[in-house]
From TrEMBL:
Bilayer topology term: Multi-pass membrane protein
Similarity comment: family membership: Belongs to the cation transport ATPase (P-type) (TC 3.A.3) family. Type IIA subfamily.
EC number: 3.6.3.8
Protein name from the UniProt record: ATPase, P-type (Transporting), HAD superfamily, subfamily IC
Species of the source: Pseudanabaena biceps PCC 7429
Length: 927
C-alpha cells in the first residue's frame, strides 16, 4: 500500500524523545533516505496546515476607539453636553458649553485610544523566527523549500549556521551542537545525540535527541524527522500562551476607574439632593437643571487624563536617561508597586559569557578573577595571589593545562571597538581567555606549534583531542573533555616536573575535585596530554587517546554581572523580593543565586520536573518560600508568575529569550533585555533595559515610585479644588442666589487653573528615602493614607472661603451697581477667587510637612511659573474684551481684584497652618 493511501496514525502529542529512530519513522510513515512523496506532502499539508503561527482575531481599531467612550465619567459628560445643547437651543443661544464639553470628551477619548493601540507585535516577531529556508529530502531528492511548507514526516537536513524550521526527532547526527538559549534559557550550545532514548518527563532542555523550531545550529550536521509544525511546535505553544494571556488593568488604571465611579456616584447623589430640595422650595426647574449641569461639569476632573498621560510621558523620558525604555505608558507608575522581580538568569543576572573561575591540579588549587572575555585577571594559588605570568609562575602542570586550553580550541579572542569578543563556542572562548590571563598568547603558540590532526568532540566519547608539532621536535597530543571519561584514558599524572603513574587515591582525589567544582554550579572540563615522537601512521584516531598524562581540571561559569549584587541588595531594602527563574541546571542556578544574595545557603531549588507534578494549590504554597527555579519550561514560568499573582504579589518579570515572552506578557511588568533580548521578548514586554543591566530595574522602580507619589499629589490638588467648586455651586441656590459659574468657566478652571499647576507638580523631585519604603500596595484604594480626608477637608475650606466672598460680593454689588450688572460682577469675583485660591493650594501642596518658606524654590521652578502664568491668563479673561465676552465675565475694579486676592490667600494660609499642626503632633508622639 502506498504511503499516500495509508491513514497517518501518529498522535500530535506523541512524546518523540521517548521513541527510538525506527519507531519515530514508522509512526510518521516516512523514509529516512527517500523522505515522503509530493502527493503525501499535499495530503499532510491539507491535514496539518502551513508550518506557521496563527494569530487570534483581536479588537479592531474602531472598536478600541469606541471603547474609550464607555468610561463612566465621559458618559456623564456626554449626557451633560446633550442637555446643555438642548437648553441653549431652547433659549436661542449658541451652544458653546456643549461644544467645549464635547471637545474635552473627544480629546480624552483620543488620548485613551493612543495608549491602547500599541499593536501586538510579539506574534509577528515569532513568525520571523519560524519560517526560514530549509533543505529536505522528498521523493528521494534534496530540495530547498520555505519553512512554512514543511509537514510532519518530512526529512530535514541541518548544518552549521541554519535555523531549525520545525520540531523534529534526530535520525542521525555528526558532532551536532544547537544553541537553544532563546527557547530554553541555557547559555551553552547543546550537544545533540540521535541514539538516546529519554524518559517521558525529561525537560525541554534535556531532550538531547530532538531539535526545535527557532533554535540555531552552531556546528555539525544532522538528518531530522519533522514531528511537529505550526502551532503544535514548542514555538507555537509559546505563541498560544502569549495570545491567551489576558492583560489586566494596571493599578493606576484601576484606581482611576474607582475614582470615576466615586465621583459620578457622588455627583448624581448631590444633583438629586439639589433638584429635589429646589423643587420642594418651589424653585425654577430650568435654573435647577442648569445648577445640576454646572455641578456635573465641576465634579469631573476633565484635565486629569491629560495630566496623567503627560506625567507618565515625562516619566518615560527620565527613565530613558537611566537606560530604561518604556513601551507602554501605564508601566511607568506600575513599577512603583512591584513587590517581586522574577528574573531570568542567562544574560540578565549573568553576563552570558563563560568565565573560568577555578583550576585544580594534583598539587594546587587555583582561583581566577576577571569578568567577561577581557583577558584581565589574577590567579590565587592555594590562597596566595600570583602575578599572571605565563604558566602562572612556571608551575609545570599548570603550564601544560594552559597549553591544552590553547590547542584544544577553535575559538578566537578579538578586541572590537574597545570590547573583547569571542568568535566561536563560548566554552572554548573561556579557555582562550584563561590562557591569555596566564600570559599565554593563543595565536602565537598555535602558529609556533601547528595542529597536525584532530579527533573532534563526539557525544559518545565526550572528548576532543588534537595532535600538534612540538616546538623542539616530536609531537604532543592534547585532550580535553568530560573529567570522568578523560581520566579513564590516563595512566599517569603530572606532579610538578615529575610524571608519576596515577594511583587509585589520586583518581579519587581528581573525582572529588570534580564534584567540588560541579557542586558550585561550574561546568568542569578535564585536561590531559601525551607525547608522540612520531606522527601516528594513518593519522590520529580514538585508539591514540590512551596512556594519557593527567594535568588538571578547569571549572567555568556564566559569571554574574558585577553590579547585580548591589542591585539585589537595594531591591531587598525597598521591600522587593528577587526570584530567579531559569532553564539552566539547578546546581548552576543555586550557585549564582547564593552568590548574588537571591537565595541563602540551604534554600530549596524547585525544578521543572517537580513543578510539573504540583497542583495549583501546592505551587501557591511553594512560591511563598522558593526563590530559585531551575530547568523550567515556558509553561512553568507562566505558572509561577500566575501563582505569585494569586498570592497578591505584584510581579515584574525580566527575560531575553523567546521562552520568556508568555511570562513577560502575563506579569504586571514585563522587562526585556535591549541588547541580548529577542524581538519576541521585546514586543511582549512593557519595558526594555537598554543596557541589559539588572541594576537599571532598581533605578526604573525608583522613578515609578516618584511618578506615583506625584500623581497622588496632583490628584489631591485637582479633586480638592473640584470638591470646593461643587459645594460652592450647590450652596448658591440654597441661599437664594443663582449659579455663579457657567459650565464653560468650570471647564476653564478644570483644564487650565487645575491643569497647568498639576503638570508642574508632576515633576516634583524624589524624596530622599523613596527606596527605603516598602512598595505601594497595588490594591491600595485611591483615597488611602489620608488622601480622601485631605481632599474633602480642603474642598470644604475652599468652599467656605468662596461662599463667604460670594455672599459679601453679591450684597456689595447689589448695593453699589445697577441691577443689569449684579450677577456678572459678583459672579466674576467668585470665579476669580476660586482660581486664585487654587494657586495658593498648588504652592503649599509641594510638601506635607515642610513649610513653603523652608523649601528650595529652585527644585521646582515649574510650579512658580505655572502659578504666574495661570494668574495672568485669569486676568486676561477679565480685562481683555474678546475673552471677557466669550467666557461671560465682567470687569471688576482693582479694589475688588485685591479683595479676591486677599480671600484666595486664606487657602494658602490654612494649608501652612495644617503643616504646623502636623509637625506639632509628630513632635508630641516622639516625646
Amino acid at each position: 500500500m502506498a504511503i499516500a493511501e495509508r491513514e497517518l496514525e501518529a498522535p500530535p502529542n506523541a512524546h518523540w524523545h521517548t521513541l527510538d529512530v525506527d519507531e519515530s519513522i514508522a509512526l510518521l510513515q516516512s523514509d529516512a533516505d527517500q523522505g515522503i512523496t509530493n502527493q503525501e506532502v499535499e495530503t499532510r499539508f491539507q491535514r496539518y496546515g502551513a508550518n506557521e503561527l496563527v494569530a487570534k482575531i483581536g479588537r479592531s481599531s474602531l472598536q478600541i476607539f469606541i471603547d474609550q467612550f464607555t468610561n463612566i465619567m465621559l458618559i456623564m459628560l456626554m449626557a451633560v453636553a446633550v442637555v446643555s445643547a438642548i437648553l441653549d437651543i431652547r433659549d436661542h443661544e449658541f451652544p458653546k458649553d456643549a461644544i467645549a464639553i464635547s471637545s474635552i470628551v473627544l480629546l480624552n477619548g483620543i488620548l485613551g485610544y493612543m495608549q491602547e493601540t500599541n499593536a501586538e507585535k510579539a506574534l509577528a516577531a515569532l513568525k520571523r523566527m519560524s519560517s526560514p529556508k530549509v533543505r529536505v529530502i522528498r521523493d528521494g531528492g534534496v530540495i530547498e523549500i520555505d519553512g512554512k511548507n514543511l509537514v510532519p514526516g518530512d526529512i530535514m537536513l541541518l548544518e552549521a549556521g541554519v535555523q531549525v524550521a520545525a520540531d523534529g526527532r534526530l535520525l542521525d547526527e555528526q558532532n551536532l551542537q544547537v544553541r537553544e538559549s532563546a527557547l530554553t534559557g541555557e547559555a551553552e550550545a547543546v550537544n545533540k545525540e540521535a541514539k538516546l532514548i529519554l524518559e517521558e518527563d525529561a525537560g525541554l532542555g534535556d531532550r538531547l535527541n530532538c531539535v526545535y523550531q527557532g533554535t540555531e545550529v552552531v556546528q555539525g550536521r544532522a538528518k531530522v524527522l519533522v514531528t511537529k509544525t505550526g502551532m503544535q511546535t514548542e514555538l507555537g505553544k509559546i505563541a498560544a500562551l502569549i495570545q491567551n494571556v489576558e492583560t489586566e488593568d494596571t493599578p493606576l488604571q484601576q484606581r482611576m476607574t474607582q475614582l470615576g465611579n466615586v465621583l459620578v456616584t457622588g455627583s448624581l447623589v448631590l444633583v438629586g439632593l439639589v433638584v429635589v430640595g429646589g423643587m420642594l422650595n418651589k424653585g425654577d426647574f430650568g435654573e435647577l437643571l442648569k445648577t445640576s449641569l454646572s455641578m456635573a461639569v465641576a465634579v469631573v476632573p476633565e484635565g486629569l487624563p491629560a495630566v496623567v498621560t503627560v506625567t507618565l510621558a515625562l516619566g518615560t523620558q527620565r527613565m530613558v536617561r537611566r537606560n530604561a525604555l518604556i513601551r507602554r505608558l501605564p508601566a511607568v507608575e506600575t513599577l512603583g508597586s512591584v513587590t517581586t522581580i522574577c528574573s531570568d538568569k542567562t544574560g540578565t543576572l549573568t553576563q552570558n559569557k563563560m568565565v573560568v573561575q577555578g583550576i585544580r591540579t594534583g598539587l594546587h588549587s587555583l582561583q581566577v578573577t576577571g569578568d567577561g572575555y577581557a583577558p584581565i585577571g589574577e590567579f590565587t594559588i592555594d590562597g596566595v595571589p600570583e602575578k599572571p605570568t605565563f604558566a602562572v609562575n612556571n608551575i609545570p602542570e599548570v603550564q601544560q593545562l594552559l597549553m591544552a586550553c590553547v590547542f584544544c580550541n577553535d575559538a578566537i579572542l578579538q578586541q572590537k571597538n574597545g570590547e573583547w569578543i569571542i568568535i566561536g563556542d563560548p566554552t572554548e572562548g573561556a579557555l582562550i581567555v584563561l590562557a591569555s590571563k596566564g600570559g599565554c598568547d593563543a595565536a602565537e603558540w598555535q602558529h609556533r606549534m601547528p595542529r597536525v590532526f584532530e579527533v573532534p568532540f563526539s557525544s559518545e566519547r565526550k572528548r576532543m583531542s588534537v595532535l600538534v608539532q612540538g616546538e623542539h621536535g616530536g609531537n604532543v597530543l592534547f585532550c580535553k573533555g568530560s573529567p570522568e571519561l578523560t581520566l579513564e584514558c590516563c595512566t599517569h599524572i603530572q606532579i610538578g616536573d615529575r610524571i608519576d603513574p596515577i594511583a587509585d587515591l589520586q583518581r579519587q582525589q581528581v573525582l572529588a575535585q570534580n564534584n567540588e567544582l560541579a557542586s558550585r554550579g561550574l561546568r568542569v572540563l578535564g585536561f590531559a596530554y601525551r607525547n608522540f615522537p612520531e606522527i601516528p601512521e594513518g593519522g590520529l584516531n580514538e585508539s591514540d587517546e590512551s596512556n594519557l598524562i593527567w594535568v588538571g581540571l578547569v571549572g567555568m561559569l556564566d559569571a554574574p554581572r558585577p553590579e547585580v549584587r548591589e542591585a539585589v541588595k537595594r531591591c531587598r531594602e525597598a521591600g522587593i523580593r528577587p526570584v530567579m527563574i531559569t532553564g539552566d541546571h539547578q546546581l548552576t542556578a543555586k550557585a549564582i543565586a547564593e552568590d548574588l544574595g537571591i537565595a541563602q545557603l540551604g534554600d530549596r531549588v524547585l525544578t521543572g520536573r517537580e513543578l510539573e507534578k504540583m497542583s495549583a494549590t501546592d505551587l501557591d504554597r511553594e512560591v511563598q518560600e522558593v526563590s530559585v527555579y531551575a530547568r523550567v519550561s515556558p509553561e512553568h514560568k507562566l505558572r509561577i508568575v500566575q501563582s505569585l499573582q494569586r498570592q497578591h504579589q505584584f510581579v515584574a518579570m525580566t527575560g531575553d529569550g523567546v521562552n520568556d515572552a508568555p511570562a513577560l506578557k502575563q506579569a504586571d511588568i514585563g522587562i526585556a533585555m535591549g541588547i541580548t533580548g529577542t524581538d519576541v521578548s521585546k514586543e511582549a514586554s512593557d519595558m526594555i533595559l537598554l543596557d541589559d543591566n539588572f541594576a537599571t530595574i532598581v533605578a526604573a522602580t525608583e522613578e515609578g515610585r516618584v511618578v506615583y507619589t506625584n500623581i497622588r499629589r496632583f490628584i489631591k490638588y485637582i479633586l480638592g479644588s473640584n470638591i470646593g467648586e461643587v459645594i460652592t455651586i450647590a450652596t448658591a441656590p440654597l441661599i437664594g442666589l443663582t449659579v455663579p459659574l457657567s459650565p464653560l468657566q468650570i471647564l476653564w478652571m478644570n483644564l487650565v487653573t487645575d491643569g497647568l499647576p498639576a503638570l508642574a507638580l508632576a515633576v516634583e523631585p524624589a524624596e530622599p528615602n523613596v527606596m527605603k519604603k516598602p512598595p505601594v500596595d497595588p490594591r491600595e484604594n485611591i483615597f488611602a493614607r489620608g488622601m480622601g480626608a485631605y481632599m474633602v477637608r480642603i474642598g470644604i475650606i475652599l468652599a467656605i472661603i468662596t461662599i463667604v466672598l460670594m455672599v459679601w460680593a453679591h450684597g456689595f454689588t447689589n448695593t453699589h451697581f445697577n441691577e443689569t450688572y449684579v450677577k456678572e460682577r459678583w459672579a466674576t469675583m467668585v470665579f476669580t477667587t476660586l482660581c486664585l485660591a487654587q494657586m495658593g493650594h498648588a504652592i503649599a501642596i509641594r510638601s506635607n510637612t515642610q513649610l513653603t518658606i523652608e523649601l528650595n524654590p529652585m527644585t521646582n521652578l515649574y510650579v512658580w511659573g505655572s502659578v504666574i502664568m495661570t494668574t495672568v491668563l485669569q486676568l486676561v479673561l477679565i480685562y481683555v474684551e474678546p475673552f471677557r465676552r466669550f467666557f461671560g465675565t465682567h470687569l471688576i475694579t482693582p479694589t475688588e481684584l485685591a479683595i479676591c486676592f486677599g480671600f484666595s490667600a486664606l487657602m494658602f494660609v490654612w494649608i501652612e497652618l495644617e503643616k504646623l499642626v502636623i509637625r506639632w503632633w509628630l513632635w508630641q508622639r516622639q516625646t
